[in-house]
Specification:
The structure holds 2 protein chains of 2 kinds. Chain A is built from no helices and 11 strands. Chain A is mostly beta strands. The chains are: A mainly beta, B mainly beta.
């Protein structure tokens, strides 16, 4: 069966520090991969998605970037974190477009 | 383009009462529709999906939803609420490749 791993579960970072969140999927190949951010009391905002290695689509211009160095690995990064980057970050995957997405357990990011 | 509107950011029901969470969608192509549930500090779990087969869709935990094209609705129901149903519920739509559009969520409270 397929599983998705996301880490760390929680992270506290100072303003201006770099960020790297990692997401990996097991048990499938060539998944579509997604990064979302969920701010307190708000819905999910799609940040990036990828349909293949090295293929990244950005939904919202911002302080973050994403990379897909391997088929089942998706990384969310920032060179300098802002206070507004605080939130709950979720990684998800789907086997093909228009199929349900399956979510990781999320990373709670707090910026001080 | 697709969009989702969830009416009511908070819904409170008594244990044993009917649960009704409303979702209206907009889509320029035949939609695929989903309901997800999120418990505190966790990722999203798929409850059910509509993918153009039967209009009444049954999901996990006793939930079901009915696709009504004429009303552009996909409301989520459960005949009898249980305390364990307290969570946040998200409706989502996709009609184009790769991307889901989520509603802002409805927090369900279940009281004794």
């Amino acid at each position: 069966s397929q599983t998705i791993h996301q880490w760390p579960a929680t992270l506290v970072q100072p303003v201006g520090s770099p960020l790297s969140l990692e997401c990996t999927v097991e048990g499938t190949s060539n998944p579509n991969l997604y990064w979302y951010r969920q701010a307190a009391g708000r819905g999910l905002q799609l940040l990036f998605y990828s349909v293949g290695i090295g293929q990244i689509s950005s939904e919202v211009p911002q302080n973050l970037s994403a990379s897909r160095p391997q088929d089942r690995q998706f990384i969310l990064s920032s060179k300098k974190l802002l206070l507004s980057d605080s939130g709950f970050y979720l990684c998800a995957w789907s086997p093909v477009p228009n199929q349900p997405q399956h979510f990781g357990d999320g990373t709670r990011l707090s910026i001080l | 383009a697709q969009s989702v509107t969830q009416l009511g950011s908070h819904v409170s029901v008594s244990e044993g009462a009917l649960v009704l969470l409303r979702c209206n969608y907009s889509s320029s192509v035949p939609p695929y529709l989903f309901w997800y549930v999120q418990y505190p500090n966790q990722g999203l779990q798929l409850l059910l999906k509509y993918t153009s087969a039967a209009t009444l869709v049954k999901g996990i935990n006793g939930f079901e939803a009915e696709f009504k094209k004429s009303e552009t609705s996909f409301h989520l129901t459960k005949p009898s609420a249980h305390m364990s149903d307290a969570a946040e519920y998200f409706c989502a739509v996709t009609g184009t490749a790769s991307k889901l559009t989520f509603g802002t969520g409805t927090r369900l409270q279940v009281t004794l």
